[in-house]
Amino acid sequence: MTEAPARTLFVNARLVCPASGLDEVGSLLVEGGVIAALGRELRTEGGAEMVDCRGAALAPGLIDLGAFVGEPGAEHRETIATASDAAAAGGVTTIVTRPDTTPPVDAPEIVDYLKRRARDTASVNVYPMAALTKGLAGHEMTEIGLLLEAGAVAFSDGPRSIPNARVMRRTMTYARDFGALVCCHAEDSDLIAGGAMNEGEFATRLGLPGRPKAAEALILERDVRLATLTGCRYHASLITCAESLDIVARAKKAGAAVTCGASIAHLTLNENDVGEYRTFFKLAPPLRSEDDRRALVQGLADGLIDVVVSGHDPQDVETKRRPFAEAEDGAIGLETMLAAGLRLVHSGDVPLGRLLAAMSTRPAALLGLPGGSLAVGAPADLVVVDVDAPWVLDAHRLRSKSKNTPFDGARLQGRVLRTIVAGETVYTYA
């Protein structure tokens, strides 16, 4: 991280603000860690560092809602420091961390520990998500009020759904009274037990047990109905199929406070990418069919999908270099989220502003966080990206401690040139 100058003027930039719909060439002035001014003919009197963007896009920094960072308990997979370095290289200026650590984030003192570790080691903003139930066991709700006071920004049981509908209803009711956002993984644990990839013809050909889409739709339907019953703010962390989109669409039409997210992997890859048992493509939920992927892309373009996330879930070599059915689920994604997402822009499926809204503006609004905008007075959390720059990804050069990326060797188009947090440059592409 470089020391922030008193004033920085970004010139020759394509200013892209998804919050206001702005997309024009101009300049932007940063002063005291916030955006001080922007416009076509912006001028400043001496004392400002000049940054020539050379026509690259200047946009709000990305906000990743729900990344696994390893601390505490899994520092061999990732740390807050290495995750934040990877995030900065990918244009992510804010990470919201998952609660499924060891121990889980189910007490105020653990939230406080994460905040202190982030303050001491992170180069980007880090906000903890707390557990919905104690020990992530799905039986007894956590002290949501105390966790909010400690600094938690949302509540989830990580990659697990709460199996008991009564517990889920009580938890939602309690969360509603605090205005808390409940983020849930939608998969029936009994239906997916033993499954290794999307259930269907391709899994049968590979001789692998499948995880049916119905497992997702069943839990999502239940949770949406409970959210409607309780008035809770409910966010489906990851949806992967057309059936789930239909459920969310009905809930939104009925006026329920329901939102949903999708991972960049599920938007840009499908079950065929598993190929000959390639374990870096083994995810949870699994990659679905091309029809489902196309439905997700259309849902993003239409605004039905609110948030795009990295799905960052680092795994070490020993847990991935196994037979497919035995390998751990998960892939890293902080550093590749934006570049992979730009595939959808270059294909003409999703406008750039809509993609950035799902990666910055909408997460900020859902969580009540600053950022996601180029408005005057907003935090100077910014990314400069050449949306047309071609490059080939080399996993060994990624900054994440783990290297389990499904995009290794992929040809990408869109390179992050600079990432700024509170006016300070935390990453520059050399």
From TrEMBL:
Sequence ranges assigned to domain Amidohydrolase in this UniProt record: 347-427
Entry keyword set: Pyrimidine biosynthesis, Zinc
Domain Dihydroorotase catalytic per the UniProt entry, residue ranges: 57-244
GO cellular component terms, semicolon-separated: cytoplasm
GO terms classed as biological process: purine nucleobase catabolic process; pyrimidine nucleotide biosynthetic process
Keyword Plastid in record: no
GO MF, one annotated term: dihydroorotase activity
PANTHER family given in the database record: ALLANTOINASE
Cross-referenced NCBIfam families: PRK09059.1, pyrC_multi
Protein name: Dihydroorotase
Organism in which the protein naturally occurs: Hansschlegelia plantiphila
Gene that encodes the chain: pyrC
